[in-house]
Amino acid sequence: xxxxxxxxxxxxxxxxxxxxxxxxxxxxxxxxxxxxxxxxxxxxxxxxxxxxxxxxxxxxxxxxxxxxxxxxxxxxxxxxxxxxxxxxxxxxxxxxxxxxxxxxxxxxxxxxxxxxxxxxxxxxxxxxxxxxxxxxxxxxxxxxxxxxxxxxxxxxxxxxxxxxxxxxxxxxxxxxxxxxxxxxxxxxxxxxxxxxxxxxxxxxxxxxxxxxxxxxxxxxxxxxxxxxxxxxxxxxxxxxxxxxxxxxxxxxxxxxxxxxxxxxxxxxxxxxxxxxxxxxxxxxxxxxxxxxxxxxxxxxxxxxxxxxxxxxxxxx
Amino acid sequence: xxxxxxxxxxxxxxxxxxxxxxxxxxxxxxxxxxxxxxxxxxxxxxxxxxxxxxxxxxxxxxxxxxxxxxxxxxxxxxxxxxxxxxxxxxxxxxxxxxxxxxxxxxxxxxxxxxxxxxxxxxxxxxxxxxxxxxxxxxxxxxxxxxxxxxxxxxxxxxxxxxxxxxxxxxxxxxxxxxxxxxxxxxxxxxxxxxxxxxxxxxxxxxxxxxxxxxxxxxxxxxxxxxxxxxxxxxxxxxxxxxxxxxxxxxxxxxxxxxxxxxxxxxxxxxxxxxxxxxxxxxxxxxxxxxxxxxxxxxxxxxxxxxxxxxxxxxxxxxxxxxxxxxxxxxxxxxxxxxxxxxxxxxxxxxxxxxxxxxxxxxxxxxxxxxxxxxxxxxxxxxxxxxxxxxxxxxxxxxxxxxxxxxxxxxxxxxxxxxxxxxxxxxxxxxxxxxxxxxxxxxxxxxxxxxxxxxxxxxxxxxxxxxxxxxxxxxxxxxxxxxxxxxxxxxxxxxxxxxxxxxxxxxxxxxxxxxxxxxxxxxxxxxxxxxxxxxxxxxxxxxxxxxxxxxxxxxxxxxxxxxxxxxxxxxxxxxxxxxxxxxxxxxxxxxxxxxxxxxxxxxxxxxxxxxxxxxxxxxxxxxxxxxxxxxxxxxxxxxxxxxxxxxxxxxxxxxxxxxxxxxxxxxxxxxxxxxxxx
Lengths: 316, 677
Known about the structure:
The structure holds two protein chains of two kinds. By secondary structure, chain A is mainly alpha-helical. Chain A has eleven helices and one strand, in the order ααβααααααααα. In chain B, β3 (519-521) and β4 (526-528) form a beta hairpin. In chain B, α3 (83-106) runs antiparallel to α10. Chain B is globular and about 90 Å long. Chains A and B meet through β1, α3, α4, α5 and α9 of A and α17, α18, β5, α22 and β6 of B.
């Protein structure tokens, strides 16, 4: 593969995540609105929101340190970097050599760490409350993440992102397995929790005592808020892409030709659309859990992930 | 690379001479506290540098043998150096260099209050004893040095002996360390009796012929002895007491380095002294490690004492190290030597990494203590603006201990995960399940560690100061900052260029168990098991930097608004924003207290004093939220009570009557005669 096409593919993945993520958020909001009998804003509304925020001045609390100003940049950086590692369109990602799925998960944690610090930085009770809850949920979700990865690695024989897809694409029978389905369910629940979606957190509300992510970023404004929101969108995009491509690897380009890349693009669009619909459906049909019921949900997802691993052992 | 034996010997002698000079120099200059402080710790600094050179030369293949038959009875003093010993010398020296540098500034505060000559003397003895422990080659040498190390550190722990709690902490430490010593002594003597030699090197061959039951017994005794020094649960109780009580440079050494000698002992027991052990040894170590890791971080997470939090987090990290040691023994027993070596590399690399970031964090906490005179996080805050450099170093330490890329803790935890995940190659369902739970425990630990250090850094350094001491804090003196800078640099280098240390570690493991680890690496990448997983930390770090610089430029090109205005934090329309609005350390930990209530068993109490005229006016509200320590309550209290009862019963024997004692002597004599015949 030539240098030029490598750069082109890296750019293609980067642009897809950068510009696809607001659209994904818009589609989910639209689908939710329609399911709830509302007309809803245009699916392009998130672009307008980000543009509006970018044009506004930033108001920073005088209590804060450089952490507060640095965090939105770091957050967006970790997501952009992940966009180059995750096999969005192709398994031959130019920067895929930078890490396997575990390294990727820790890259996401790096963003969470700084965002939680930023929540504490302004010295408001809301920020601290949000940080404390966010890290609690992230910590409790972590065992599920790793055990679900274990479940995948067991069957694919690798923890590398492209290796998993190659293996599953070559032997689809590996996926016809209760373990695969269970691991998928566990990972899906974790994706909801990590991205602050219902039933863990409600992205659409600023109700003071229940919000988690929104409480943590309450002090942000202007371009800093734009970065935070955009990064949150990219995180959702990347998680859903992982769910799509690791568990349903159809369509992902195994070699880079214009034709395979186009197929991959269309396949991903369809899969993401289905996931957007699923999330909208979940968010319309379930209520937000009380904060102290969330650990029960995560314990449930952990059990499911463990079952996925155990079934794989016994069906070896 | 072959290193001349005389060079090794010279380095060894220089090391000993420096510490000797430091110990004596501190005593000689006792009249002048300033001189004693600088001479004592300055000599230790030079000695530690010589020790680092000695250790690195040993890792590069330099060996040494030294027998001094007249120094000690029963076989004399015997020293030797192999790569494993050299690695631990490197770990100790790497901790001792910054600790000595830090101490030069930090101990200034003790002048006039405590004897700096005594501190300098004990410090030198402590460090040199630690350096010599991994070099000991027979039982008596080992035990003498082990005891010397414990005693010197005991005296350092009780430096601030005017405080009741320090003395109590010292007492707990003294008792626990000697309980461990007794277990070691018994184990060593049994092993020496069974093999017929006191010399470590001859044990490996002889141990293969031991009968399994006595081998298991010796393993249990030695493992308990070493695990109590390492601070594994449930033998950890001394750690959260003694480490906060000691002066901070000593806490850094004890938590960062001394407990690692317990790890050294466990590696020797599991891989060389007793030969290859059965799988259940590994399973036990792995489970104890998993429990220590999870419970250690859970206790750290709710503690408001900054130094005790760090001490509990050491229990956690020892747990992570034991997790990989146990995995290594299990892999070895399951005939997968390559993965066993990988797990052992992960454990040893975490040993070194923990020495770097835990020393750094203890020194950061020491700097905070120095500047504010409090360790209570509820009185801290806002130090980011008052001590910006200390804050930056503490942040690097926090990121490293939370195992986030691109810092060193991430690499060793990543390696540990790789080795644990590779366990699917074993085909025994029980072992598979143990490993799956090990993966879950490690994942939970690392998630909780993120929460713990967001809290530790965020509450201590960010937002507004919660007390006037914190508000009046200033940056600390330069030797302290230099020491922290060295360690922060180490965290970054070990995190971005792991091959620097992985290459010598791989050679060490090969020497120990003659198996090549299932890991390939070059300057930029680490690959586990032929592409099972990989990470390229240097590229990750560079890519992060590139994106961080490109993003603001990109926003500018997009025409984003550049203006920034400072204003007060939004307070729901309240006019005044004070530190009382901030989330506290207790509040931050509350979700965890509720989720893990079974462990903490929190006791809540609300005392409200009402106005005498009307219950609608409140004068004071006091809220207590105390957790109970289940190991102390369930294990140690009953044990102590039993010992007390036994002692009271035994009092009946002490009649005070001379004739009675004569009868005892007669009975003892007869019993001995019967036993020996």
